[in-house]
Write a structure and sequence with these properties.
The protein has about 210 residues and is α+β, with helices and mostly antiparallel strands. The protein is about 60% helix and about 20% strand. The two termini are about 80 Å apart.
Length: about 210
């Protein structure tokens, strides 16, 4: 149809329009309806559909992760049991409060027995955790390199858990060295101390929730 023919069409008499004009009008109306529906109805639903697909993928991934954990649950339980047993065995190696003095004497004797001279043996303040108390001891001892090395080896072989850190070795005089270090030993908490720490932890959690 020509432009003049389109201009001559009576919008009030669509029924008598040529077939081509009627078909064109139907196509235009269909496109308009689709666009209006898309922007005012379907767009929100499409957004929800996309969100649903994303949520589905997330749930699938969570399911895979939980399934993998469930498959290995018994192995995890066994591993946790072994860790707890190992930790319990380590705790049994810790002296109690009444045995700490004996342990300090053993550390001192390990040095004296090697002919070393203590210039400093100063226990510090205890640091308590939920399971044990850590006692740092500042030491300064002098002797030959061989005797100092033997002292470090003897401390490592003690029946109780003792560690040496912050070690500093300096030359004092010919054949004599000075070792400055922090010896750390540990003791088990008694029941009253454990209850006190548990109470403090519970109060701290309560304050964080508030």
């Amino acid at each position: 149809m020509t432009l003049d023919e389109l201009r001559s069409l009576d919008p009030k008499d669509i029924g008598n329009w040529p077939a081509a004009a009627q078909l064109g009008l139907l196509v235009i109306m269909f496109v308009v309806i689709v666009l209006v529906g898309h922007f005012y109805v379907w767009s929100d639903q499409l957004t929800l559909l996309d969100e649903g697909k994303a949520r589905e993928e997330q749930l699938k991934e969570e399911f895979k992760q939980k399934k993998a954990k469930a498959v290995n649950l018994e192995a995890y339980r066994q591993q946790l049991l072994e860790i707890q047993q190992s930790f319990g065995a380590l705790l049994k190696q810790l002296p109690n409060k009444s045995e700490m003095e004996t342990l300090l004497t053993e550390i001192n004797q390990a040095g004296v027995g090697r002919g070393l001279q203590f210039e400093l043996f100063k226990p510090g303040s205890e640091v308590k955790t939920a399971e044990f108390a850590e006692l740092p001891i500042s030491i300064k001892i002098s002797g030959s390199y061989h005797d100092l090395a033997a002292f470090v080896s003897d401390v490592a072989k003690l029946s109780r858990i003792v560690t040496l850190g912050d070690m500093k070795l300096t030359n004092k005089q010919a054949g004599q060295l000075t070792l400055e270090a922090t010896v750390k030993t540990y003791r088990a908490l008694d029941e009253a101390e454990q209850q006190e720490i548990r109470k403090a932890e519970a109060e701290a959690k309560k304050q964080r929730r508030n």
